[in-house]
Amino acid sequence: MKKRTNKQYAQILWEATKDLKAKELEEILKNFVLLLVKEQRLKQAEKIIGEFEKYSKKQEGIVEIEVTTASEIGKTTVDNIKKVFGSKVEAINTIDKNILGGMIIKTEDKILDGSLKTQLRNLKTQLI
């Protein structure tokens, strides 16, 4: 039997719990933990939970983006960036002084790199 990935376990859990009430949820979670024990995957529980959270947000239409800048940016700037990606957006702002300026925006499947470091590297490549 082929082993399931953490993402597959997360999807199974989401499908099993999406419309349940608290009492039913408790029973499903108990059975899910027993499944993880049986399949020797309990040590992966934290990663499975992380995948579950990502999958749940995706199913609810929530887009996660990570905005990396060289210095702190204001809430207005973050809000304007979020508007570009839709109405249900969660943004995580990280600081990386190594990018020198500009920003890098990462979504689940795209990286938009407008950092000064990348622009300088591209310019160098063109000049050589």
Written description of the protein model:
- This protein is an alpha+beta fold.
- The chain has 2 domains: 54 residues, no CATH class; 65 residues, no CATH class.
- Helix content is 52%, strand content 19%.
- The chain contains 5 helices and 4 strands.
- The protein has a 4-stranded mixed beta sheet with strand order 2-1-3-4.
- Helix 1 packs across helix 3.
- The longest helix is centred in the N-terminal third of the chain and has 17 residues.
Quick structural overview:
This protein is of the alpha+beta class and 128 residues long.
List the helices and strands and how they pair.
Elements: H1 6-17, H2 22-38, H3 45-59, E1 63-69, H4 75-85, E2 89-95, E3 102-106, E4 111-115, H5 116-127
Parallel strand pairs: 1-2
Antiparallel strand pairs: 1-3, 3-4
Helix pairs in contact: 1-3
The chain-level structural class is alpha+beta
Q: What's the total number of strands?
A: 4
Number of helical segments with 4 or more residues: 5
- Overall pLDDT, averaged? 92
**Helicity, as a percent range:** 40-55%
Distance between the termini: 54 Å
Series of H and E elements: HHHEHEEEH
How many structural domains in the coordinates?
Answer: 2
Going across the biggest sheet, name each strand in turn.
2-1-3-4
* Beta-strand residue fraction: 15-25%
Uncertain parts? none
Largest sheet properties: 4 strands, mixed
- Gyration radius from CA atoms, angstroms: 20 Å
